[in-house]
C-alpha cells in the first residue's frame, strides 16, 4: 500500500485520509458499544448515524475500487449518509414533545439523502470518464442539494434554540472546511498541501471539530 494512491477519477487518494476516517468511525462505534446503558437515546442515535456515515466514508476512501461503477456507487452511498449525519443534531435539539417537527426534519433529511444519490453517482461516473460536460449538471444538482440541507440544519437549529457558541462553532468549522475543500477546484493550495494531504483532508479535520461543537451542545 503506497502513501498516495489514486481514485478511479485520477485524483490522489492519501492514505492519511483513509486512516482519519477509520479512526473516527472506530471511535463512534466504540462509544456506542460501551454506552449501551446510556438513557440519552437521541444522543445515541446521533452517534450511530455519524458512525454509519463515517463507515461509508471508509468504504469510499480505504477500499480499492476496481471499476468506475464501484467507485461511483461508494461515493453515492457516502453522500446518502451525509444529510443524516449532519442533521442528526436536530434530533437532540428538537424536544420530544414536538414529535411533528421531528418527523418533518426526518422527512426533509431523508428526502435529500435519497435525492442526492443519482446526481452523485452520475457525476462521479462522468468525472471518471473525463466527460466534464456531462458531469456538470449532476454536480450542480449535488451542490444545490448539499447547500439546501446545510441551510435547513443551521436555520432550524438557531430558530429552535437560539444562538449559542456550539451553533457558531459548528457552522464556523464547516465553513472553514468547505473553504479548504474548494481550494483543490480553483487551482490553489495551502503550504502544507501535497499528494499526501490536501484541502479535502483539511475539510474532514474541520468536520471533526465541527462535530465536537455539536456534541458540546
What does this structure look like?
- The protein is mainly α and 217 residues long.
- It has eight helices and two strands.
- Strand 1 (4-6) and strand 2 (12-14) form a beta hairpin.
- Helix 1 (15-34) packs antiparallel against helix 2 and helix 2 (41-61) runs antiparallel to helix 3 (68-87).
- The radius of gyration is 18 Å and the shape is globular.
- The relative contact order is 0.11.
- The mean pLDDT is 91.
Layout of strands and helices, then pairs:
Layout: E1 4-6, E2 12-14, H1 15-34, H2 41-61, H3 68-87, H4 89-93, H5 99-128, H6 132-161, H7 165-183, H8 199-216
Helix pairs in contact: 1-2, 1-8, 2-3, 3-5, 5-6, 7-8
Mean pLDDT: 91
> Which descriptor suits the 3D outline?
globular
The total of beta strands comes to 2
Q: Which segments are poorly predicted (pLDDT under 50) over 5 or more consecutive residues?
A: none
**Which structural class fits the helix and strand makeup?**
mainly alpha
* Major sheet details: 2 strands, antiparallel
**Compute the gyration radius: what is it?**
18 Å
Assess the beta-strand content as a share of residues. under 5%
The gist of it:
The chain is mostly helical and 217 residues long.
